[in-house]
């Protein structure tokens, strides 16, 4: 899994480096092979002073490393994305220096959902350090009642917009977009989909977010997409390939998707909106819930049933006029 690294930190040949430009020349400073230690040294350089105690950056790096096998991939990806924006603010601080007021100010100042996620990451990190005996002080993000308002996204991709996206996409992306709409499968699971997922009854895969197994039954169109995407390949290889013939990376796919939606004239559409369209176009709530693999039907109705249903107007009643005298 590719990490979302803080600014000026890069990974090369199995080690992390601090990359800067001085007098027009790029300088690579080797940090460490272990992520937590690399973050500690990164914090030293960014903060301009040696760090003798554990820093927030080191603590976050340690937590992410020990949580690789425990956390779901989607959760880990989210935490690493949060760390990218939060560490430049708090990374250089010693874990004992970070106070609840700092976290509160960060959440309020940023004022977005990403700030809520960063607070959650900090809370998890400090809770882990307490259990591991690394830090016995208070949790500066724990018990913080303030949260920025999170509004459920309701963007519905119309059939016309979907057609525009398919038209703007290249051959490979056309197949991927149509596959995403028909199945409602998450982006990460689509990119990691292997040819071995095909069974006699349908496409069998494990949802990376819930860990639950799912089976999408074959339809004539879905079989056609699978056959066209597979080509002559066999074995445990990716179903969808990038332009270079290799597997999609997360960043590579995002760049490809961005080009497609810009060409389609729909810059506000996110790839995840295709999953919402799948749920919205399902015949009913039960079908949508089963297709998307939700345990709670409330999640399906709140976030994935965004298509407006036409309501018939009231039929006017006939009113008899009283005869004039």
What does this structure look like?
The structure is a single chain. The chain has 325 residues and is mostly helical. The chain folds into 2 domains: 9-132, no CATH class; 159-304, Intergrase catalytic core (hpI Integrase, Chain A, Orthogonal Bundle). Helix content is 47%, strand content 9%. The chain has helices spanning 35-47, 56-66, 73-90, 100-110, 113-132, 159-168, 171-183, 187-191, 220-230, 250-263, 272-281, 285-292, 297-304, and strands at residues 9-12, 15-22, 25-32, 202-206, 213-217. Strands 1-2-3 form a 3-stranded antiparallel β-sheet. A two-stranded antiparallel sheet has the order 4-5. A hairpin with a 6-residue loop joins strand 4 (202-206) and strand 5. Helix 6 packs antiparallel against helix 7 (171-183) and helix 12 crosses helix 13. The chain is globular. It starts with 8 loop residues before the first strand and ends in a 21-residue tail after the last helix.
Main sheet attributes: strand count, strand direction, barrel closure: 3 strands, antiparallel
Q: Return the structural class.
A: mainly alpha
What number of structural domains do the residues give?
A: 2
Low-confidence stretches: none
Helix content: 40-55%
Strand order of the main beta sheet, please?
1-2-3
Oligomerization state of this entry? single chain
Distance between the termini: 88 Å
CATH class of the largest domain: Mainly Alpha
Mean pLDDT: 89
């Amino acid at each position: 899994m590719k990490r979302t690294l803080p600014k000026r930190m890069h990974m090369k040949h199995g080690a992390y480096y601090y990359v800067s430009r001085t007098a027009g020349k790029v300088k690579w400073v080797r940090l460490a092979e272990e992520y937590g230690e690399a973050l500690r040294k990164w914090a030293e350089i960014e903060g301009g002073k040696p760090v003798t105690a554990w820093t927030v950056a080191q603590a976050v790096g340690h937590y992410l490393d020990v949580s690789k096998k425990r956390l779901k991939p989607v959760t880990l990806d989210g935490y690493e994305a949060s760390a990218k924006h939060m560490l430049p603010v708090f990374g250089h601080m010693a874990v004992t220096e970070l106070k609840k007021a700092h976290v509160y100010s960060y959440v309020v100042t940023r004022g977005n959902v990403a700030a809520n996620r960063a607070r959650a990451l900090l809370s998890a990190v400090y809770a882990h350090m307490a259990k591991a005996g690394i830090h016995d002080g208070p949790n500066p993000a724990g018990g913080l009642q303030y949260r920025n308002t999170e509004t459920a996204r309701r963007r519905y991709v119309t059939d016309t917009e979907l057609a525009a996206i398919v038209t703007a996409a290249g051959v490979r992306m056309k197949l991927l977009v149509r596959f995403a709409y028909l199945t409602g499968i998450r982006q990460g699971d689509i990119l990691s989909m292997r040819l071995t997922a095909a069974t006699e009854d349908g496409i069998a895969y494990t949802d990376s977010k819930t860990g639950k197994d799912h089976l999408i039954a074959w339809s004539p169109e879905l079989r056609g997409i699978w056959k066209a995407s597979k080509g002559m390949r066999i074995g445990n290889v990716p179903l969808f390939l990038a332009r270079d013939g290799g597997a999609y990376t997360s960043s590579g796919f995002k760049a490809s998707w961005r080009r497609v939606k810009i060409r389609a004239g729909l810059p506000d559409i996110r790839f995840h909106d295709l999953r919402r369209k799948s749920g919205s176009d399902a015949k009913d709530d039960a079908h949508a819930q089963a297709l998307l693999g939700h345990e709670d039907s409330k999640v399906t109705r709140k976030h994935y049933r965004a298509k407006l249903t036409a309501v018939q107007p009231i039929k006017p009643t006939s009113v008899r006029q009283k005869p004039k005298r």
